[in-house]
C-alpha cells in the first residue's frame, strides 16, 4: 500500500518506518524541514516538507503523495507543552483529515492516548466514555484527544490507537528522561494512581498491524495496569534513586489504567506484556 505518515520522525515513527518498509509498503513521511531527508532515504522512504498547522501545506503534500492510507503519529511534546500538543491534535488532525478526504484516502490510523477516560474503579475498555468532568489542566489534553478522534472518525475506515504510557529510549520514561529526574529529586509519588504502560516497539508494531484491522478504537497497552506504589520502587531500584515511601492516596480518580483485550483479539501480541520485565529490558 501507499502509506503517508505524519509524525514519522518521532519516537514511535522512527521505529514504525522500517517496519512499514519491511512489510512491503511504499512510504512517504512528512517533515517540517529537509534536514532529515538523508536519514529517511536510507530507511527506504520518501520525505516531503509539510507543516501540519498549515492547511495548504498538508493538502499539497497529500495530493503529491496520493496515498491509500494515512497514519497520524504526530505529537508536539518536545517542550512538554500541553497546549501546543493539543493544538496539533485539533488543527493538525483537522487539516490532515480534510486533505485525506480530498485526496480520496480510504483509511486512516491515528495515535491517541489511553488515559483520557472518565474516572472509575477499574481499568477502562474502549466503551468507557472520555472524561467530561475536568480540571482546567486536564481539559486541555482531553479536549485535544476528543477533537482528534472526532475528526478521524470522518474517514470511513478509521482506526484510533489509544496508546498507554510509553517507555523506552527516547521517551519520558528513559534513564535520561524527565521521569528519572523527578525520581532522583523525590518528586515522583508512589501512590495508588494506576497506569497502563506500553513499550515503544510494541506501539510501532500495533500501528503496522492496524493497517488491516477493522475500523474502531483500540487500547494499545500492556497486560498489567499497575499503581505507582508498585512500579515507582522498581524504577528507583533500577536507577539507584531513593525509594519513595508508599502512599495510600494521591493521583486523580481518572488514573485507572486500561484493558487491551480488543487489540489482542485483533492479533496484537505485545513483545513486553508487562512493565515488570519491560522496564528492565528497555530501560536498564
Question: Structural class of the secondary structure composition?
Answer: alpha/beta
User: How would you write the strand order of the largest sheet?
Assistant: 3-2-1-4-5-6-10
Could you give the order of the helices and strands?
EHEHEHEHEHEEHEEHEEHHH
Proportion of strand residues? 15-25%
Report on the structure:
With about 280 residues, the chain is an alpha/beta fold. It contains ten helices and eleven strands. The strands form three sheets. It has a seven-stranded parallel β-sheet, with helices on both faces. A two-stranded parallel sheet has the order 7-9. Strands 8-11 form a two-stranded antiparallel sheet. Helix 8 runs parallel beside helix 10. It is globular. About 45% of the residues are buried.
In short:
The protein is α/β, with parallel strands linked by helices. It contains 10 helices and 11 strands.
What distinguishing features does this structure have?
10 helices, 7-stranded parallel β-sheet, globular, two-stranded parallel ribbon, 284 residues, alpha/beta
Spell out the blueprint of helices and strands.
Layout: E1 2-6, H1 13-22, E2 26-31, H2 37-43, E3 46-49, H3 55-65, E4 69-72, H4 82-102, E5 107-113, H5 136-152, E6 157-163, E7 165-167, H6 178-184, E8 194-195, E9 197-199, H7 200-209, E10 216-220, E11 226-227, H8 228-239, H9 261-265, H10 275-283
Parallel strand pairs: 1-2, 1-4, 2-3, 4-5, 5-6, 6-10, 7-9
Antiparallel strand pairs: 8-11
Helix pairs in contact: 1-7, 3-4, 4-5, 8-10
